[in-house]
Design brief:
InterPro entries: GrpB/CoaE, NT_sf. This is GrpB family protein. The chain is 41% helix and 22% strand. It is α+β, with helices and mostly antiparallel strands. It has a five-stranded mixed β-sheet, with helices on both faces. A two-stranded antiparallel sheet has the order 1-3. The longest helix has 17 residues.
Length: 157
């Protein structure tokens, strides 16, 4: 297994802006926001850009189809439901994923996590520590550690 690299979130600002604009043009009625570590000042990232695409329940399937017809495909080995679709871009120049979410559904938490970290630099430090502490482990273990941290931030108040 190759060790993952971590980078400063600020290194990906331009790529994230381009990705957001691309998706917003395809889905003008969607809520399109950068989420994930690249959107959090001071956070470490493995270099992937994550975009939240919030849509109504009525437009969910159409929105997924529009994205899939324009260079996105379902992300392998991720949760796929009738309220959440994880998609990834076929753009070889950027590691880009989007989470298409029915607004108000139980999966509509990505922005809340981002906003909590932006509001509390100590949470950013703790998130970075989790990443640094698990970076040399298999990707599944790394993702599981991040998921556990995210749940603690969102559900322990």
């Amino acid at each position: 297994m190759t060790d993952m690299q971590l980078y400063q979130s600020s290194d990906f600002t331009d790529a994230a802006d381009v990705a957001q604009q691309r998706i917003a043009v395809l889905l003008p009625d969607a809520v399109v926001e950068e989420i994930g570590a690249t959107s959090i000042p001071g956070a470490l990232t493995k270099g992937d850009v994550d975009i939240f695409v919030g849509v109504s329940e009525a437009s969910f399937e159409l929105s997924v189809n529009v994205l899939c017809s324009n260079g996105f495909a379902p992300k392998v080995d991720t949760l796929q439901t009738d309220e959440l679709r994880m998609l990834e871009s076929d753009d070889k120049n950027m590691d880009l994923a989007c989470q298409v979410v029915v607004l108000g559904s139980r999966y509509d938490f990505f922005r809340e996590f981002r906003d909590r970290l932006i509001a509390d630099p100590s949470l950013v430090e703790a998130y970075n520590e989790v990443k640094l502490g698990h970076i040399h482990l298999p990707h599944k273990d790394y993702r599981d550690a991040k998921a556990e941290f995210i749940e603690r931030v969102l559900y322990s108040s």
